[in-house]
Structures are given as structure tokens and as C-alpha cells.
Target: UDP-glucose 6-dehydrogenase
Amino acid sequence: MYARWVPEDRILTMSLWSAELSKLAANAFLGQRISSINALSALCEATGADVSEVAYAVGRDSRIGPHFLDAGVAFGGSCFQKDILNLVYIYECNGLTEVANYWKQAVHINDDQKSLFVNRVVSSMFNTVSGKKIAILGFAFKKDTSDTRETPAIDVCLGLLGDRAQLSIYDPRVLEEQIRRDLATNKFDWDHPQHLVPSSPSASKQVSMAPDAYTAAEGAHGLCILTEWDEFKTLDYERIYKKMEKPAFIFDGRNVVNPEKLRNIRFIVYSVGKPLDPWIKDLPAAASN
Model:
């Protein structure tokens, strides 16, 4: 079938199980790489190292390479977690529990990364975001798509809503209906036909949508960058600072902005895996009870 449009020398022929495991393993390896660099990002913050410098040095080793070594709030999308968990299931069905647990850790670290991000936001903002407006820039799981399946923005937003934050969300491609549906839908219901997914609430008092980043940030106490859209790199952050409440916080979950430039504007900045802002450095990574 594929030979009709794919060159023969690019078609790999193998057994059914080899083909199935090859597909699962490819995505599992990629997800594992992201979880590995994210695990290092927490240690970089604790020691004062810069995860981008560490990733660059590691990626210079030709045996490792530079791809998929960008630390961030977590990986998302429809494939990585699903395929890792499918691999775990096959291991467990074959009695290989210890190896299954090894692969589970890639998913656990990914989930923990989102929790760490939320905890960092709350602890930095005087141990609570209750009643505070938080601007959310980006909701898609990556730039240049409207796909929100397993986007880390869902868990980050739900974590902030759990502490009664007021969210103003802007994404250049994701529709309001989709965002509200994602925030009202059980974790794995996105894989069901849309007519079987519970309808989103008509309006949530804690969530509003913004037509652009500047509107989202107006009157906000903090701003979270959750998708690496190119436009977020070139925003007029001085304009944003003037419209935000003070002190003004930026939590960069995708390392798309220059922390030092923003600190010169007088923002308090957190970037994943980067040397911590003096304001944040002596605070616990999680809010105290």
C-alpha cells in the first residue's frame, strides 16, 4: 500500500509486534527526554544552575543530541502520555512490573512538573492567589496549533482555580468554547466523541477570555506563559507592567522571555530551571499550609 507513494528504501518491513513496539517506543523515548530535562530543571533552580546551559552542554554530545531538551511546564498532546501508558500496560500484561514502573516515572515526573509550577506561583504570591487575577498566555499544548489534548495548561489552570484565582485566558488559536470545555471535562474525556463529553458551563465566574495578551494582563497580579507562541517573545512588556497590579509577577513556563530584561522593568520573574529571582529564591517551592 505505502509503496504507491513512499520510496521503497524508506519502507521498513517487520513483524506486527515489532511495528507496534517501535511506534510506542519512539514516543516513549521522546517523552522520557522531556521528563529528564524537566527533572534536571528542579535541581538547577535549587543549585543556581541554568537548565538551558546544561541542556546545551549535554546536547553537544553526539550520542545524545540537542533535540527535545527544552525544559518547561510539562509535555502535552495526544501521543506521548498515551503511548507511554500503552507501553506500561503491555509490560504489566507480560509480568514485567519493575520495567513498567520505570516508564511510569516519565508520566509521574510530567505530572509533578505541573504541580511544581502551580506551587511556585502560589508560594511566590504571598502563599495564596485567592481573588487575584492571573493572566494565562497560551492554552494549546504547543505553538502553531489549536490542539489542547493533554495540554499542561489544563492542570495549571485547575490548580490555580483550586486556590480561587480569577483567570483571564488568551490563546491566538484556541476557541473559548474549547477552553471552557477542557476546564469542565474529566481528564481523559477528550478522547470521546464530542456529543458524549459533558457540556461546558455557560459561564464561570472565575474564568474569562481575553482578545489579546494586553487585555489579559490588565489589572492582573501575575502572568503565566504556558504555550511558546512566538508573539509572546515580542510583547511590549513595559506596557504590560504599567497595567498590572504591583508587585507584578511573570511565571514563564516555556522559557520564551529574557528574565533579566523583565527584571529591569521591575517584574518579579520565574523561569523554569533558571536562576531564581531574589524575591523567590528564599521562598519554599510550595506554599505553606
User: Anything to note?
Assistant: DSSP finds ten helices and six strands in the chain. The first strand starts at residue 133 and ends at 137. Confidence is low (pLDDT under 50) at residues 195-203.
